[in-house]
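step 4 of 6: structure.
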Amino acid sequence: MGIQQTFYEAMREHGITRRSFLKFCSLTAAGLGMGPEFAGKIAHALETKPRTPVIWLHGLECTCCTESFIRSAHPLAADVILSMISLDYDDTIMAAAGYQAEEILDQTIAKYDGNFILACEGNPPLNEDGMYCIQAGKPYVEKLRRMADHCKAIIAWGSCASWGCVQAAHPNPTRATPIHKVITDKPVIKVPGCPPIAEVMTGVITYMLTFDRFPELDRQGRPKMFYSQRLHDKCYRRPHFDAGQFVERFDDEGARKGYCLYKMGCKGPTTHNACSTVEWNGGLSWPVKSGHGCLGCAEDNFWDRGSFYSSVTNLNVTGQVEATADKVGGILAGAAAIGVAAHAAASVVSHTKDSNKGGAQQ
Amino acid sequence: MNSKVASGPHDPANQRAVYVFEAPVRLWHWLHAFSFAALAVTGYLIANPLPSLAGEASDHFLMGDIRLIHFISAYVFAIGFAVRVYWALVGNRYAREIFYLPFWRPSWWKGLFYEIGFYLFLTRRQHKMLGHNPLAQAAMFFLNTLVTIFMIGTGFALYSEGLGIDSWADRMFGWVIPLIGDSEGVHDWHNLGMWVMLTFVIIHIYMAVRADIIGRESSVSTIIGGWRMFKDDQP
């Protein structure tokens, strides 16, 4: 595979028909919310642009991002995307192993220096010089830094790479650190979620390969097309929220009728993701549809907020405070009320005493 | 700055009544108070909703109405505060008191410690005040003015999530969310801000009523009529 090969040629080589290719282009355009005229643009770009290799690194993670990605429900996505992005390196799913596999990294740097995309799943632990994650005999953070030095742009797949996720939850013994805090000199796009939705992943990577740039990002570096709204904004149970109809227990009438799960701790109102529109497993279902609240897996700190089943969560002060705002505030206001009552009693005593002395209080 | 004890018979502090709080200040005080009351109650109910309603969803709009009251009160709260900031610039000297602390003045610190001693019953004699005493001024500044700014900032940041990305609220306040961390965190701190303000309200109402009953000057009627009346002619 020379540098001159286009995406289209690479796909044809992998046995994708032209008809399937065009279908994929239309579906991707629709998936990215770009309107029908962009199908042609995507097709044209893929036919004429040299293929960009993708190196997919794995740090501390559980592989759920890869599992999600290879189950993309776009018909063909598994075939098309995988052949298109030509995962030159991916520890989990590549055939090569050992020295052969590590050689691919050197070859990629030699052939495509500054011209490949680095997709990071998981994050590096920084404590003990990164010794908590060793790959090919070296700390993962060294591999990450080396590849990042030579790449064009970085995709942070999933909540691990984007925020830190479970391994960075308090007290974070290995000091697992999200990608954007380790690599600061390259553009990073965050695609959070534990895992991210497969169609979101393929959508983002197709956009980047097709248009040679990131899709528009929000302030936190997430693609606006998938992360600009909360699940709550597009939730099919929203009318029950607005009406004031809630599930109070998982076995009550409200649960059977499909009422809003907010009181059961659903984090839909604070979670930015596309679950309520794109859904999961080929649009089959998603957490709320299956009767359980959202855990907020696409948001930062979602492990450090105490119960998943409470609408008021713990104040996040570096994971140290295990108390909600209502608890802290209730104590504060209660203490003020007691203090005021005590001071009022003392004032009455003092005032009466002073008055008895003959108005000396003035 | 107002902690001075009057020095002579013609000192304004010896007058029996002084016009202290101008109409916009008084009007804002009550708008602020009532909108906060509405915001605190509806905000608490948004975090901890009322028991579930039965029947068809189309028959009710309870949560929607609670949120609507919250948002309308929030506009009153925020616009009222903006006008109040303007009035601090053009109004009389007492209109400015809650917006800054004259910490560079040794006399202000002296007054502050004097007031702390007074409220700890260590000193019997209370200073005559036209505006706020230094202790009250510090409480107003930290627990009301700063918290108000915090609540407006975090409140509109959360509101922007509903209005949508690139809305006016997102452009003006959206940066607050990544600053604090995430949407859930902003909700939590916004909630705690309400409790801090409620704590202030408890102390504030107590102090105002206490001053009115056993202090040397009027307090409750001053924020209604604007005139500070003194009960004695002594300095």
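step 5 of 6: annotate
 - The CA atoms of residues 266 and 294 of chain A lie 5 Å apart.
 - The first strand of chain A starts at residue 54 and ends at 58.
step 6 of 6: archive
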